[in-house]
Amino acid sequence: MKLTKIMLAVVPLMLLSNTTNDAKAKEENKTPKNVILLISDGTGLSQISSAFYFKDSEPNYKRFQNIGLIKTSSSRQDVTDSAAGATAFACGVKTYNGAIGVADDSTSVKNIVERVSSKNIKTGMVATSSITHATPASFYAHAVSRSMNDDIAVDLLNSGVDYFAGGGLEHFNERKDGRNLLKELKKNKFKVDTVGLKDFSTIKSKRKVGYLLAKDAMPKMEEGRGNFLSDATAQAIQFLSQDNANFFIMSEGSQIDWGGHQNNSSYLISELIDFDEAIGKALDFAEKDGNTLVIVTSDHETGGFTLAAKKKKREDGSEYSDYSEIEPTFSTGGHSATLIPVFAYGPGSEVFSGVYENNEIYDKILKVTGW
Ligand code: MG
Ligand code: MG
Ligand code: ZN
């Protein structure tokens, strides 16, 4: 009698916990159809932390549950540059600093855009730098040096990229070889705009879209760039998901790195907060869609940035740190080798927790998507 009672009480509990486990397993086995990779160039934990102290609203970084760390060293050096850092994400290999989509021996390595374009997956690139700059370039181009912007622009023209937005117009229409790539882009099915983001809903989904909105880099946030990064990220998502297509988007907050190089904390923090807004756009879509994996990471840290307590002087002239006030400080004008956080949301996101190498991001994307 006693045993039966216990059994009756336990069995429904077991059933319940099995159902919960099944649902969880289903969720974890779900294959994402879309991937949005958001890269904030030059962003370590202190840069991210600045959003928690200096943004007026709650940072979108807070919306993630799966978090990991990557080691970012390049093939030959402890401290990576953006080219090797992005090539690790885009092609899955560690290479030398300066390399765009080529291995340590300078041979081309298939990038994620090449891999998925043949599978009818749409691709998009957004950056607040020139679209030919090291980070976006590594996803669609192959060059032995990041300085070969004119060649990288030709690779973009011939790539499978379906949507791009950023600066870099001069590499298309003021080229050393005299070619006018704006005309050639149009021949290659692109609708090109050099003025501003437009309503794209009139553009047929079989066409492609390219925005080149600055001669070189886009303006800084502090110089009135406005919502370009968020708007272009949201527009890329809308454009590429037309007709139920699947997509891969790389969207970069390029200038957080530049604020770090200049040891300019207001430049850095304004760019970081802008990037956090773009994260919000990606997560809003992913939450509604349910089939989208969002990954947020960086290629490396820049500036040796720290949220230090403000140094003050007592009346007797002795120094102390005032723990009630933050004074952002820097330890270098270059990059650093600190481990870099990875935030992931959506189906497959759990594989991005842990501590691993930067090029494993590529492996993990292919593993969870089956691309
Ligand atoms: Mg970088
Ligand atoms: Mg970059
Ligand atoms: Zn840099």
User: End-to-end distance, in Å?
Assistant: 57 Å
Contiguous low-pLDDT stretches (5 residues minimum) are none
Bound molecules: magnesium ion, zinc ion
Largest sheet: 10 strands, mixed
- How do the strands of the widest beta sheet line up side by side? 5-6-4-3-7-1-8-13-2-14
Number of helices: 12
Strand content: 15-25%
Class from secondary-structure proportions: alpha/beta
List the SSEs and their pairings.
Elements: H1 2-29, E1 34-40, H2 45-54, E2 66-71, H3 82-91, H4 112-117, E3 122-130, H5 134-140, H6 149-158, E4 163-167, H7 170-173, H8 181-187, E5 190-193, E6 208-212, H9 228-240, E7 247-253, H10 256-261, H11 265-289, E8 292-297, E9 301-302, E10 306-313, E11 319-329, E12 335-336, E13 340-345, E14 354-357, H12 360-369
Parallel strand pairs: 1-7, 1-8, 2-14, 3-4, 3-7, 4-6, 5-6
Antiparallel strand pairs: 2-13, 8-13, 9-12, 10-11
The chain binds magnesium ion (2 copies) and zinc ion.
One magnesium ion (MG) is lined by residues 41, 82, 129, 133-135, 252, 254, 257.
Describe this structure in words.
- This protein is of the alpha/beta class and 371 residues long.
- The chain has a single domain, classed as Alkaline Phosphatase, subunit A, CATH 3.40.720.
- Helix content is 37%, strand content 22%.
- It has 12 helices and 14 strands.
- The strands form 3 sheets. Strands 5-6-4-3-7-1-8-13-2-14 form a 10-stranded mixed beta sheet, sandwiched between helices. Strands 9-12 form a two-stranded antiparallel ribbon. A two-stranded antiparallel sheet has the order 10-11.
- Helix 9 packs parallel to helix 11.
- It is globular and about 75 Å long.
- The protein binds magnesium ion (2 copies) and zinc ion.
- The site of zinc ion has 6 residues, from helix 10.
